Amino acid sequence: MNILYRIYLSVWSMAFATMLCLPQWAQAAVAYAGDTELRVYEFPVLDLPYNGNAFPSMRQSMQMSNDFHYLLHNAWLDLVSDQSVNDPDDWLSQNLPIFIFDAVWGVMPLGQGWMHEEWHRAVLGRRGINSHNGIYDFNSFKSSTPSDLVYVDHVRDEDLIALKLNHPDEMVRLHSAGFESQYEQNLEFEKQGFFNDHFPAMGGAILLNYANNIYYMDMCASSAASNTQTDNANRLDGANVSARDFTGLDCTAWTYDLFRPNEPYAARGVHPSGVGINRYRKFSDLTVVEQRYLERQRNLSLLNLVDPFLFGQRQFVTGSGEWLWNATLRHELTPFGYDIATNVFLKERGGSGVFCAVHSYSNDTGTYPGIEVALPRYPISLFDEASHITPRVLAWSQPKHLLFRDPSAKLGGLMSIRLDIPIGSGWEMYGELEGKTRGWVAGNEYLGGNVAMRFGLTKVMEMDSRWKTRRLRQ
Question: CA-based Rg of the chain, rounded to a whole angstrom?
Fold first, then answer.
């Protein structure tokens, strides 16, 4: 269930417009830009084994949403900019319309709200559970529906009973997957902006993702808002089980099932209509300890605002002038508690780069470390063709059963290698092989061990940098 932007949109619009009016923030993005920007559009064709049961996967829905944002942002900037030059001072005709479009389209197909719901559906699809994304009903602006809610519906009570019984860790992850999607989309936007210098007014989209998640967490942690919203939804849903959302307020349900992995799903009781299970959890359904834990996660979500990209700071230069870098903080909900990560971006000026993340995984009994290293689009020669590989390695210690009260941890990891091969006219074909042990990885549907293969196409366009061109013309 995705909380839309109607309440806080005006506040954040004002904040964002103010940010764009400050030239020192905008100019920082100009300072270290390269001569060109690499626009990479990815078309994910096949994601196995996930696509054997369902479509789209987490990776596929995110990439479709990313491409949609890039295409629309670039098209608008090309239309209104002087010779495709992005002027950071011209926020009124360039950045602000894009921000407004992103906010409005967030509740439409391929928008951020659509992706939020698709990641919920991806967790259900992992177990062959059918569902429907309420974004396709286009009910978000109709007064006859719970107007500030979007459902993942057509989910049977029997499927939720079985999921909670057989896979309690996946039940918890199901609730938090929407938050996960919006944080991971921001990370992908930032990787493109840093490593490819491709950042067509993405600050507004990043801001909306953060604002949505933080506001949603705050609503869940508010007794009055959570209880009122849930009562209204139950009343409007009535006795039609198929019309109900799968969970209600995401983070309230996440907290409830996090603390109760062994409680049968049916213990939620009977729906107020007398038909089916009372799925939705209120703030008042939580114990005092659970309420305080949810409030703490709400507060920790503010760490995500420690993000220079949010303020136009895409790259910083080292003292030698030869290297560029950036760093962000990330807080995410997990099946066993939460993860706080430090993301580090580093690249040689005009050369290759490396992405690193240091993770701190926490449950009720301890905190455990993790580390991630990736080389985005590292150039190689294959059959005398300029190709690229992207190796990625993660190593972690996480709660053994991925549960909140696990007293012990278990080592695990993930390794993947992706190969992009040119096939002509700026098109590339890619294949990726990935293997992982049991453990939680953001953007991966599988909590258990898994081997995945992904195939698709990319369109790569090397363009004169909007920022570089502007600087040379001054």
Answer: 22
Q: How far apart are CA 266 and CA 272, in angstroms?
A: 14
pLDDT value of residue 91: 76
3-state secondary structure of 387: strand
Question: Contacts from 408-417 at CB under 8 Å and sequence distance 24+?
Answer: 409/366, 409/368, 410/438, 410/439, 412/436, 412/437, 412/438, 412/439, 413/437, 413/439, 414/439, 414/441, 414/444, 415/391, 416/390, 416/391, 416/392, 417/389, 417/390, 417/391, 417/392
pLDDT value at position 218? 96
CA–CA separation, 82 vs 379, rounded Å? 33
d(CA 360, CA 160): 30
Distance CA 262, CA 398 (A): 20
Q: Which two tokens stand for residue 6?
A: 């109607």
CA–CA distance, 377 with 39 (Å, rounded to integer): 13
Distance of alpha carbon 419 from alpha carbon 431, whole angstroms: 6
- Strand ranges in 195-322 using DSSP code E only, listed in sequence order: 316-317
Structure tokens at 82: 């002087």
Over 60: is that where the pLDDT of 24 sits?
no
**Cα 12 to the center of its chain, rounded Å:** 19
Q: How far apart are CA 149 and CA 338, in angstroms?
A: 25
pLDDT, mean of residues 230-246:
96
Q: Which residue has the tokens 């967030």?
A: 106
In the 8-state DSSP scheme, what is residue 311? G
The model's pTM is 0.91
Whether 42 and 65 have beta carbons less than 8 Å apart is answered as no
Quote the tokens at residue 159: 């499927």
- Separation between Cα atoms, residue 88 and residue 270, nearest integer Å: 56
- What's the whole-number average pLDDT of the chain? 90
Q: What are phi and psi of 351, to 5 degrees?
A: -125, -155
Q: How confident is the model at residue 139 (pLDDT cuts 50, 70, 90)?
A: confident
Alpha-carbon distance 451 to 416, whole Å?
10
- DSSP for 51-118, written as a single string: GGT-S--HHHHHHHHHHHHHHHHHHHHHHHSBTTB--TT-TTTTHHHHHHHHHHHTTSTTSHHHHHHH
Tokens encoding 420 = 């992009």
Q: How far apart are CA 170 and CA 402, in angstroms?
A: 9
Condensed to tens digits (0 to 9), the pLDDT of residues 389-413 reads 999 999 999 999 999 999 999 999 9
Amino acid at 89: D
Tokens 């896979």 locate to 167
What is the model's pLDDT at position 357? 99
d(CA 194, CA 208): 20
Report the half-sphere exposure of 142 (CA within 13 A, side-chain side).
8
| CA quadruple 186, 187, 189, 194: dihedral, nearest 10 | 140
